[in-house]
Amino acid sequence: MNRSCKIAAIDFETANESPTSACSLGIAVIENNAITALKHWLIKPPEMRFNNFNTYLHNISEKDVEKKPEFYRIWPAVKKFIEGKIIIAHNASFDIGVLQSILKVYRIDAPELFYACTVSLSRRVWKDLENYKLKTVAKNLEISFNHHNAKEDAFACASIAIEAVKNLNVRNFPELLDKINMKLSKLS
Q: What total of structural domains would you count in the chain?
């Protein structure tokens, strides 16, 4: 695996409980321990079914996405942002699960990706937090963001990774992972 210091923090919001219902994606790119790009897409899910709870959380409704592109149309742009980078997400099992599910729905071959979870990372770096929810970790690190906005959540996730590198006084993210004995997972 390339031990490059390029990282892409991702965050999906979904229309309902299904991992195929991505309605928003945010990406924050980290290079040399700084956020160098932020990107956000509203996405028309393959099935236009929004539940009230999800809409309450992220404030995205059917009306907001009915004329937006489906995921397969934005995939070439998304792929450029994530390919060749270590992917991070706060609660990566959710976001990676959404990515895998939506790629499968559209029969898109998944690229070779390695990823890490900033929840697990945060537990290893800051051992005394009340919990390790994105909002809690960000508040502890004085990171301001608008929670449940995919771009903002990706920004917060990226900021947590940068703060962890600084906190443990290492040069980059791969060194951080080595220091806390955390392995990358592979998208399968």
A: 1
**CATH number reported for the structural domain that contains residue 26 in this entry:** 3.30.420.10
Contacts of 76 (CB under 8 A, 6+ apart): none
What share of the chain in percent tops pLDDT 70? 98
Domain span at residue 12 reads 7-186
Per the listing, tokens 């990282």 go with 7
Indicate whether 1 belongs to any domain.
no
For the segment 42-48, the average pLDDT, to the nearest whole number, is: 97
**pLDDT of res. 187:** 87
Mean pLDDT of the chain: 95
> Pairing between strand 185-186 and 114-117?
antiparallel
Q: Please state, in angstroms and rounded to a whole number, the distance separating the CA atoms of residues 165 and 33.
A: 8
CA nearest 85: which of 57, 62, 117, 115?
Answer: 115
Alpha-carbon span 11 to 162, nearest angstrom:
17
Residue 2 forms part of a structural domain: no
Which amino acid type is present at position 6?
K
pTM equals 0.95
